[in-house]
Amino acid sequence: MIPYKDDNPTRIFPFITIFFIALNIFVFLLQITYPSGMKETAYTYGAIPRYILTFETNQPVHPAVTVFTSMFMHGGLFHLAGNMLYLWIFGNNIEDRLGHLRFIIFYFFCGVFAAYAHAITNADSTIPMIGASGAVSGILGAYLILFPRAGVYTIIFLGFLITTVKIPALIVIGFWAIIQLISGLISTRLHEAGGVAWFAHLGGFLIGLATIKLWLPRRTKLWL
Question: How far, in Å, CA of 145 to CA of 96, rounded?
């Protein structure tokens, strides 16, 4: 199941969403051309759980800074493409509802919460976490609350048959969330130290789900 667009129109041009997508792509290009290689950049600018919890400063970049730099880094082309696809489909509507400035703050808020959700569940890990997944997951949680009935056009694979259907956002995002939860529980049971930061996804999703209505701008009522 791969979503590729929704039928939810916006009132404003989503230039912050587009800027975030462009910035993620630009940083990825820097990563793959960095002289020391992608692994070295990940350990320099990625969010390492042990360090962002203890604020140890033996790394060249302070751990507090890596919480933010890690949000714009990715481990590969498919990692980048998946995050940017979801950001493009769902981010523009959240930007539309919040406004540009609130959207920026909300994006980073979800990303930071997601990083610490992963860190707390992997407190001794020195494996860097990178990717926009936590922040994007927060956007998915917000979208689920604000637009549960919006139609999401989705590619479905049925064996050798490939078709497209329009599915309510509640089902598309709900299915995504269930996959994250199951995968997170399996990784915990198997004591996997690396790989996908499932609890970052869940943390970002839950904080976006729980707080989005607090971020909505207040509408002034005029009594005539």
Answer: 15
pTM of the predicted model as reported, rounded to 2 decimal places? 0.91
The answer as to whether 115 is a domain residue is: yes
- The tokens 């995968």 sit on which residue? 183
Q: Please, what is the angle between helix 133-146 and helix 77-98, to 10°?
A: 40
46 lies in which domain range? 12-149+198-215
Q: What CATH number does the domain containing 18 carry?
A: 1.20.1540.10
Our count of domains for the chain comes to 1
What pLDDT, on the 0 to 100 scale, is given for residue 209?
A: 96
pLDDT at position 170: 96
Integer Cα distance of 54 and 206 in angstroms: 24
- Say which residues have a Cβ less than 8 Å from residue 84's Cβ, sequence separation at least 6: 21, 24, 25, 132
Residue 224, pLDDT score: 37
